[in-house]
Amino acid sequence: MPTSERGALTMPETRLKCRNASSAAAVVAAGAEPGDPQHTVRQDGRHVVIAYASTRWPFDVAEWAALEGHASDKSAARVMTAL
Fold first, then answer.
1. Residues 24-42: tens digit of each pLDDT
2. How are strands ordered across the β-sheet holding 13-17?
3. pLDDT in the model for residue 1
């Protein structure tokens, strides 16, 4: 597991390109897991930055975003195949 300069664990991250900033905000709102520091989502413009300990988390976020129309199938597939 990667660590920061201070020795704290850092999670791997991947980025999901959404249709627009509003779509990214909807994905972040739906994907927020309070109290789970190992599986997080945050918004960066029209992108959702997904940090994860388990590769299932970004897969699920990307799949849900595509099914709900917040991201294209191509953008979701890019996340899924990069894991």
1. 999 999 998 878 888 999 9
2. 13-17, 47-51, 40-44
3. 45
Containing 72, the helix (H) or strand (E) segment is none
**16-to-9, 10, 33 alpha-carbon distances in Å:** 22, 19, 17
Distance between CA atoms of residues 28 and 43, nearest Å? 7
Backbone angles phi, psi at 12, to 5 degrees: -65, 155
User: Strand locations in 1-80, DSSP E?
Assistant: 13-17, 40-44, 47-51
pTM of the complete model = 0.86
Q: Is the dihedral of CA 81, 55, 30, 40 positive or negative?
A: negative
Distances (CA, A) of 13 to 31, 69: 15, 22
Over residues 8-12, mean pLDDT:
77
Mean pLDDT across 49-61: 95
